[in-house]
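[job 0412] stage=complex_fold ligand=flavin mononucleotide status=START
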Amino acid sequence: MQRRSFLRLTTGGVVVAAVAGTAGLSGCSSALPAEALAAWQPPPRPAGGTASTAATSAINPLDPDTSVRRWLLSHALLAPHSHNLQSWLVSLEAPGQILLHLDLQRLLPETDPFSRQMMMSQGTFIELLAMSAAELGLHAQVQLFPQGVFDAQRPDARPTALITLMQADGSPAQQPDPLFAQIVRRHTHRAPYEMRTPEAAALASITQAAQRAQPGLRSGFAVAGSGPAAESALAQHRQIAMDAWKVELETPRTLLESYRWIRLGPKEIATHRDGISINDPMVRALAAVGLFDRSKASAPDDPGIGAQITGFNEAIAATPAFFWMVTQDNQRTTQVEAGRAYVRAQLAATAAGLSMHPLQQALQEYPEQQAHYQRIHQLLGATAPGNTVQMWARLGYAPPTTPSPRRGLEAHLMKPRT
Ligand SMILES: Cc1cc2nc3c(=O)[nH]c(=O)nc-3n(C[C@H](O)[C@H](O)[C@H](O)COP(=O)(O)O)c2cc1C
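[job 0412] stage=complex_fold status=DONE, emitting structure tokens
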């Protein structure tokens, strides 16, 4: 008898495996290898200034032995990043400073042709870094694009941010942030959610958290159970999400781009510790016998693609709320700030016991998505020139999920110039 297994990917959807029985696979585990998850236990905090007691010995912001900056970075690298690419390169050459670059080898040219999501993913990193500095009684002064801003088409080798550490001045804006505690608890959750409407207080805390990073941000929710207009909006959210996901799966070059970042089986996952982890014994078995070939895009009528669509649609149906963020313009700095706002929103959701799952497909700028891009912008009233839906995500209550891999600090350190 054929058994179908829906596997959640770490980006966007599910892969389905249809195999005749599972004999011989029972000894295999789908748990991710421990070394891929080691970064989720950051090192102990450095001695010195603490979150709550200014009276204790202060930490030297110049950080001569780099231990403070390493601690900050160990938290920042837990940030969400599209496709879990972790495109963060840092230089610690100048005392008390972190110079952040986008790793140009880790981009998504097909699904993120203008690197908007890459910029957001620089922002998520910067926000966690700044939050971690505040936790130590430091202030991280962030200068975006210190050598000039990338053009609107593509990023280049110039840095995305120069972060300078200084003593916090004791003002409310530089106090430790309660969201810090959520950094190691935050995970993207792609499973079906309970159909329970999120509490109003939780929604308010998400809005507040996002707006602290980006004061001009327009954000909102589509929530089930709040009248016929809300139900109709929710139905439109669901339909657009499903249609856009189908386009991504049925467009060969965008599907292949995801295949390129799949890490299949414990060896690949432990070696790369990034991308889309699949460790299900059945998919590994299919790949071993040549039935899951990552070098070729599956045809739209492939049963695997059909099943991925089914699995995604099930998750969309089990979504009691959507969260969205709209910016007035789509400047590079705005994109980075939107990333800072998004991770704060997700941390606030985590604190409130809620899960989030970004749905970027309809927000992507490649031609095949254009109709869905326009639909979601229309639905969210983001049609004025420059208005951009930067984030759109499922929101709801769900049982805990597992972390995704991280490459660890050393992978992000640029070699000092000689
Ligand atoms: C800008 C941005 C876009 C993202 N888009 C999607 C998406 O469309 N679908 C999805 O499942 N996850 C998306 N994610 C979540 C990432 O895949 C996730 O952060 C990454 O796999 C690491 O997992 P973690 O968030 O659980 O640590 C996005 C994250 C960011 C920051």
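The chain is about 35% helix and 15% strand.
[job 0412] exit 0
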